[in-house]
């Protein structure tokens, strides 16, 4: 019986943490006993809620039985004893040491878990993103960049580099294992100096097909219609493959290039 109780607690905890994005991130960062403790803490909360509700139901049922017994005795109503006997028999039914109360507590615990998940998922996107920010510094920058429509520089463990925008719509889904970006430039880091060498200029491609949609290398001029067009070129990057991420200002970056041509990192349109 103790094993079933522990299993119930862990299942409830896993169901909750896997359904809430912020909790899912925290669980993935945990390992070994830390992960079990995190799931167990949530599971115990739901089981205690279920026991509390079940106790209230039992108390209300007992009070109702005594009240009905009193009414039956006062008005001399027959058949109450048979009704009470059926209730007693039903409450004592067991199968493999699992009684009716065990089943009721289990169902109430799952109901409590589902209610908590709905409550968390019904929060506004801003509140959900606020919780996610607390879990990961990289996601904090990614969310800021998506909300402000600010370009970022993403360096991967493979030394690949992307400059682009983060697609904000991805945070409306519980998938936080990937980052969706609309690239402006892509390249790689030199194996010796680690300087960035740009290989692809996506902005040239965008303007070739859709006209001039940028103003002075600024993304503030992008309209929702422009963003919808650019989504055709979006790239999905695994969050685990990101080495570093930072904000990137197109105007400042290329102004510096114009002043120091010897330091220009190669840019070609493809």
Structure notes:
The protein has ten helices and eight strands. The strands form two sheets. Strands 3, 4, 5, 6, 7 and 8 form a six-stranded antiparallel β-sheet that branches. With 270 residues, the chain is α+β, with helices and mostly antiparallel strands. The protein has two domains: 2-122, no CATH class; 138-263, SH3 type barrels (Roll). The radius of gyration is 30 Å and the shape is elongated. Helix 1 (2-19) crosses helix 2 (21-29) and helix 1 (2-19) crosses helix 3 (33-75).
Give the structural class.
alpha+beta
The CATH topology of the largest domain is: SH3 type barrels
List the helices and strands in order. HHHHEEHHHEEEEHHEEH
Low-confidence spans: 257-270
Oligomeric status = single chain
Tell me the name of the CATH class of the largest domain: Mainly Beta
Percent range for β-strand residues: 15-25%
Biggest β-sheet description: 6 strands, antiparallel
Q: Report the CATH architecture of the largest domain.
A: Roll
Radius of gyration computed on alpha carbons? 30 Å
Helix fraction, binned, reads 55-70%
Overall structural domain count: 2
Which of globular, elongated, flat, extended, rod-shaped describes the shape?
elongated
Q: Please, what is the average pLDDT?
A: 77
Count every helix, treating DSSP H or I runs of 4 or more residues as helices. 10
Number of strands: 8
Distance between the termini: 65 Å
């Amino acid at each position: 019986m103790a094993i079933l109780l522990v299993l119930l607690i862990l299942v409830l905890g896993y169901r909750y943490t896997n359904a809430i994005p912020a909790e899912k991130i925290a669980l993935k960062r945990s390992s070994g006993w830390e992960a079990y403790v995190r799931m167990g803490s949530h599971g115990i909360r739901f089981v205690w809620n279920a026991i509390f509700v079940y106790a209230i139901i039992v108390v209300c049922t007992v009070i109702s039985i005594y009240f009905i017994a009193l009414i039956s005795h006062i008005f001399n109503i027959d058949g109450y004893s048979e009704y009470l006997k059926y209730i007693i028999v039903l409450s004592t039914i067991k199968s493999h040491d699992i009684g009716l109360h065990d089943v009721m507590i289990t169902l109430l615990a799952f109901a409590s878990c589902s209610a908590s998940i709905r409550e968390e998922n019904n929060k506004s996107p801003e509140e959900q993103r606020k919780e996610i920010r607390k879990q990961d510094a990289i996601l904090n920058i990614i969310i800021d960049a998506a909300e402000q429509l600010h370009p970022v520089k993403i360096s991967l463990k493979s030394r690949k580099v992307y400059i682009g925008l983060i697609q904000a719509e991805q945070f409306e889904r519980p998938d936080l294992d990937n980052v969706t970006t609309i690239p402006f430039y892509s390249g790689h880091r030199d194996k010796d100096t680690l300087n960035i060498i740009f290989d692809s200029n996506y902005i040239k491609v965008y303007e070739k097909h859709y006209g001039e949609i940028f103003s002075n290398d600024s993304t503030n001029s992008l309209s929702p219609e422009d963003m919808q067009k650019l989504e055709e070129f979006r790239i999905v990057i695994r969050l685990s493959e990101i080495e570093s991420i930072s904000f990137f200002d197109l105007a400042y970056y290329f102004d510096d290039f114009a002043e120091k041509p010897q330091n220009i990192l190669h840019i070609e349109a493809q």
